[in-house]
Design a protein that fits this description.
Elements (H helix, E strand, L loop, with lengths): L2 E7 L4 H8 L3 E6 L10 E3 L5 H10 L6 E10 H7 L5 H29 L5 E8 L4 H7 L9 H20 L6 E8 L9 H19 L4 E3 L15 E3 L3
Parallel strand pairs: 1-2, 1-4, 2-3, 4-5, 5-6, 7-8
Helix pairs in contact: 1-7, 2-4, 4-6
Length: about 240
């Protein structure tokens, strides 16, 4: 059966293109209505539960179901684009980067439960972390590249929601969770294209030898591989 991959969050084509190279039918979210006429680019208003459901409906067909979903929060990029902290911007971050990803996660799980088959769906939470004001202050370093407090809070919320949702569904028979923590200082995976290549390599390794290994809820850094030790495998080590 044809696999459908969806990419949501950061506005990048890297994961969609890598999915297509790996034999998936792929879709990605765009943040502006009418931004693209391409059928694989679908408008998603993160702050709207209705838009979230519409995004998922348009991402699948009667002959194929969503098999993999990537939710990507790029804290570093958000920090570059948001240099002031006002009430309106705090509200925007809460709606889009907190509530939006939660709406999508729950809608995906609801859909995965209904479509469960011989192979579990996969949901991947990916975050690219940025420097925090407190960490740079402690080191006595320049703080201009750090995330503002409301952005740091959104990143922490994304991570807490992802890992606790994964823990809640650890034994589910309809979805596997993957938690990926990319660091802004990691040069090898600075480009989304490199991250995308590694993620699909990792998914391939998981399909080959990770399915029957015991799982724990942890974060993994890009470049990791499925353990061959036989002691179980870590859905990502922080």
């Amino acid at each position: 059966m044809e696999k459908i991959f969806i990419q949501a969050g950061k506005d990048t084509r890297a994961f969609l293109e890598e999915a297509q190279r790996n034999g998936r039918k792929a879709f990605r979210s765009v943040k502006t209505q009418g931004e693209s006429n391409k059928e694989y680019e679908i408008f998603w208003n993160k702050s709207s539960p209705i838009s979230t459901k519409n995004f998922l409906v348009k991402s699948q067909s009667s002959s194929a179901k969503i098999s993999e979903a990537l939710l990507y929060f790029d804290e570093e990029e958000l920090s570059r684009n948001m240099k002031t902290m006002t009430i309106s911007e705090c509200s925007k971050v809460l709606d889009e980067e907190n509530a939006g990803f939660q709406y999508l996660s729950l809608s995906l799980l609801e859909r995965f439960k209904k479509q469960k088959g011989s192979e579990k769906a996969k949901i991947i939470f990916l975050i690219r972390k940025n420097y925090s004001l407190v960490s740079l202050s402690r080191e006595g370093l320049d703080k201009t590249s750090a995330s503002l407090p409301h952005i740091s809070a959104a990143a922490a919320s994304f991570m807490a929601f992802a890992e606790n949702l994964a823990a809640m569904n650890l034994e589910s028979d309809f979805a596997d969770f993957f938690l990926v923590l990319a660091d802004c200082e990691e040069q090898e995976f600075r480009e989304d294209s490199a991250l995308a290549r590694w993620i699909f390599q990792y998914l391939g390794e998981y399909c080959e030898r990770g399915k029957n290994m015991s799982k724990t809820i942890q974060w993994i850094k890009p470049g990791a591989h499925i353990s061959r030790s036989g002691r179980g495998f870590s859905l990502f080590g922080r």
